[in-house]
Amino acid sequence: MPNDRLAKLFDLKVLIGTTETTDDSLLLLLMTRATARAEVAAGRPLARRDAIVEYPYATPEEQRFLRLRRYPIESITSIIQRYDRGTAAEFAATAALTEYTQWRTVSPEVADVHNRGVVERVDGVWYLRPGWLQVVYAGGYVDPARVELSFSTATWTASTKTLTVTNGFSSYTYAAGDVIVITGGTGATTGAYVIASKVDASNITLNESLSAVNLTTGDIAAGYASMILPPMDLQQGVVLETQRAYRHAKRGGDAGVDLGGGGRVDAMNWDVHPALMEAVDRLMTWAL
Q1: From residue 26, how far is each of 17, 21, 145, 259 by CA, in Å?
Q2: What residues does 154 pair with on adjacent strands?
Q3: Considering only 92-101, 224-233, 241-250, 276-285, which range has the smallest mean pLDDT?
Q4: What gap in Å lies between CA 72 and CA 70, rounded to an integer?
Q5: Exposure pattern of 190-211 as b/e (b: 16+ CB <10 Å)?
Q6: Rounded distance, CA 192 to CA 172, Å?
Q7: Residues 146 and 156: beta-carbon distance below 8 Å
Q8: Which of 83, 111, 219, 279 is disulfide-compatible with 226, CB 3.0–4.6 A?
Q9: Averaged over 132-154, what is the pLDDT?
Q10: What is the distance of C-alpha 13 from the center of its chain?
């Protein structure tokens, strides 16, 4: 499941000063758009994705280092170098390179907040013509609304999308937009899932299914994995940008602002909040 936001709905509602849930869907939509504006300003994707398949190319075509687009890198599944333009099937039939023997991430290593997405070819150079190199990896900043829950004994009821851990959620207070990270489990699809509701101290429901069948082995695990949160100033910038767009939307009665005389302007056409731009500038300066 994609993570599309770089800030928490909870933090936004604290800033606005509301506990009402009526506008939660609008707030989440505007926060997703604010995240997209941060990515446009940064000139690269920022929100985390799994199983990214990237085909890096550059000029000059032979280089010792390459930079992946979505970083920090969380993990690299495979790197395959061909010496002609390959199809997906041809890449699948080509042996992957070996970490440390043939490639390594430039310090800091993967799963480090300071990882800048740079991968070094240890035994030669990368051949970076279009379609010659394939990298499969996970990277980017995880949605900070992921829930700080850690357990290893959950069971799963497919029909109701319910995770059950005896008294495992007694200290958890549900808020719209919360996310839980499933890190393992027999038959479970790992990844980040939006929480739909807290049923009681032992049960929560998810928006999406982690398995089409019941999983009662009791080994489903959730935790923090190696995911990396956005810098706090970036989170704050997204919150402030969302707050401004929300004010514009409420004044206009929808996603636009009434200018009078029948004129309207979409809320997202307003200048980006300075705090968001400053956070992106610091992020990109730090990433050089």
Answers
A1: 16, 10, 16, 21
A2: 220
A3: 224-233
A4: 7
A5: bbbbbbbebeeebbbebeeebb
A6: 17
A7: no
A8: 111
A9: 88
A10: 21
Upstream peptide bond of 60 is cis (omega within 30 degrees of 0)? yes
| Residue ranges of domains in the chain | 1-47+230-288, 49-139, 147-226
Of the candidates 209, 217, 235, 179, the one whose C-alpha atom is nearest the C-alpha of residue 31 is 235
Helix (H) or strand (E) holding 282: helix 274-287
pTM: 0.76
Would you list the DSSP string of 124-183? S-EE-STTSEEEEEEESBPPTTB----EEEEEEEGGGTEEE-TTTTTT----TT-EEEEE
Identify the helix (H) or strand (E) that includes residue 12: helix 9-16
Q: List 157's β-bridge partners, or say none.
A: 162
Q: Which two structure tokens, joined as six digits, stand for 153?
A: 């004994």
Evaluate if residue 7 carries a pLDDT over 80.
yes
Cα(248)–Cα(130) distance, integer angstroms: 43
